[in-house]
Amino acid sequence: MATCLLLHIPLKSPNPNSRTSKITCSSITDQSQVAKRNLLNLVSDQERGLSTQKNPIRRASIIEAIDALASLSKDTVTTGDSLSATWRLLWTTEKEQLFIIQNANLFGTEAGDVLQVIDVEKRTLNNVITFPPAGVFFVRSTIEIASSQRVNFRFTSAVLRGKNWEIPLPPFGQGWFETVYLDDEIRVVKDIRGDYLIVDRAPYTWKE
């Protein structure tokens, strides 16, 4: 699909009122790539969202960029097989995740990769926070495809695991998220609470 603009260009003619028209086209794909690069540039120095908490102007710019990318992708299907992957956090507004990332040192460790592991065929979702070299906290969920971009989820259990120990935790809720943009590199999400998430495809597959 292409977006075309009709431009009026003056002719080099003795008649100064003479004009011709030129049609220029820009594909939606090209526009999306430009919007994606802009978004990634905006979040590249934001420490997965920690810096953004103190910078409302940058936050507003990032959300505006997300909305622009979402608008270009509003007619795409983002809940198919390409949603299945190990997704790694680049940026979020979710306070709980940012709190853990920021305060992991209080427990004598630091947060590693923060992941979403989705399997559309098996209808599963794991939200994962790693604590290298051996720690991990993950929440298991079941998922249901609700529309072309929306996925419903229900938490089923949670686990805090160390090298030689494991603590099971109770499940705690349900909700939905919409993947407003998806390609072979990144995914952009808005959820039931109005939080935003930007993730890329991790170069590995996480498994329990």
List keywords for this structure.
single chain; 208 residues; alpha+beta; Lipocalin; eight-stranded antiparallel barrel; two-stranded antiparallel ribbon; 3 helices; globular
Topology at a glance:
Elements: E1 2-10, E2 19-27, H1 28-43, H2 56-72, E3 85-92, H3 95-103, E4 114-119, E5 124-131, E6 135-145, E7 150-161, E8 166-169, E9 174-182, E10 186-191, E11 196-201
Antiparallel strand pairs: 1-2, 3-4, 3-11, 4-5, 5-6, 6-7, 7-8, 7-9, 9-10, 10-11
Helix pairs in contact: 1-2
Measured as a percent range, the helix fraction is 10-25%
Number of strands: 11
- So what's the CATH class? Mainly Beta
What spatial order of strands do you see in the largest sheet? 3-4-5-6-7-9-10-11
The shape, in one word, is: globular
Rg computed from alpha carbons, rounded to a whole number of angstroms: 22 Å
Low-confidence stretches: 1-14, 18-25
> Biggest sheet, open or closed, and with what strands and sense?
8 strands, antiparallel, barrel
Give the count of helical stretches: 3
